[in-house]
Amino acid sequence: MLYSIELHDMEFRAYHGCYDLEQKVGNRFRVGLKISAELGEVAERDDVSLAVNYLTVYEVVARVMQRKQRTIEAVAQNIIQAVRREFGQIAEVECRVSKLAPPLGGKVGAVSVTLRG
Known about the structure:
Number of strands: 4
Radius of gyration: 16 Å
Strand content: 35-45%
CATH topology: GTP Cyclohydrolase I, domain 2
Oligomer: single chain
């Protein structure tokens, strides 16, 4: 049986961007994850050590967000890969990375990419 864990609206100050200035001054980013994993004996045993621990997931995402990357596509891909490495029972991860107030020459609330893997 599969179950899902969702982490909504994680916000980070990070230094991702295709422009050198973005990598110097940084920007605000929002990350959302939806993780599908094998339930196994998590519920039956009521044992958090068997579950996908959402605190650990947050820490993994925070580590990936600390590395400068040029594209938010790369950020999302690296988050998915890092979370999957941490938890073998994961079947699929959907990751949405949004750059808030991107420098596009006009008022734009955010630009986002969503990857699933």
